[in-house]
Design brief:
Length: 208
């Protein structure tokens, strides 16, 4: 297929796409919240640019606090007002609780069994209950207050030394090391171990 023929085909799909959908699918298509017109294959990815948060803000002003977008072949509903967010996250949270199944989460979280990746159901409710009662309870968090205070003091002292020496400070790196050190001591009960580079693993996971 020549590039010219392919371009004509994409334009045809873009213009006549909704009319090519079967009646049942067309009915569901019309139920979607308002949103800008999408391109074939890429959807609305071309609209995001380098500052997607600003683009989403301007689109919300035009199409409302609940709008539909499509990132490639993946449809998405964008919520951008406190009232709509409360409906999604609190009033009807069970309806929106499922997570998409991705190959990355299957590989990185033991078959999508983590709290943030597993499907909504009895298993998710059990591990959520366990996390709240055993890991994130007020008493548990308060018990680590001296540790956080100590690590924060070390961070401030390192910044003061750098300022005295007129050295350049990479706040992103210092903050990452600060959070990593607290995480190691809270979860593993020990200082950072060079055999487990958590920061590198997180960066690799987000990149992949």
């Amino acid at each position: 297929m020549s590039p010219f023929t392919l371009a004509l085909l994409l334009v045809f799909i873009y213009i006549a796409g909704p009319t090519l959908v079967r009646p049942k699918q067309l009915k569901n298509y019309r139920k979607q919240p308002p949103g800008p017109s999408s391109l074939p294959i890429i959807g609305h990815l071309h609209l995001l640019g380098n500052l997607p948060h600003r683009v989403l803000k301007s689109l919300a002003k035009k199409y409302g606090p609940i709008m539909s977008l499509r990132f490639g072949r993946v449809p998405a509903i964008v919520v951008s007002s406190p009232e709509a967010a409360q409906l999604v996250l609190k009033t009807h949270d069970a309806v929106f609780a499922n997570r998409p199944k991705l190959q990355a989460t299957e590989l990185m979280s033991y078959g999508s069994t983590g709290l943030a990746t597993t499907e909504y159901g009895p298993y998710w409710r059990n591990i959520r209950k366990f996390c709240i009662s055993e890991l994130l309870s007020p008493s548990k968090i308060q018990s680590y207050a001296p540790l956080r205070k100590h690590e924060l003091g070390l961070l401030v002292e390192s910044i003061k030394r750098a300022a005295t020496a007129h050295d350049v400070v990479d706040l992103s790196l210092l903050t990452s090391d600060f959070m990593e050190s607290i995480t190691f001591k809270m979860i593993l009960g020990r200082s950072k171990d060079d055999r487990f580079d958590m920061q590198r693993l997180i960066e690799q996971f987000m990149r992949d």
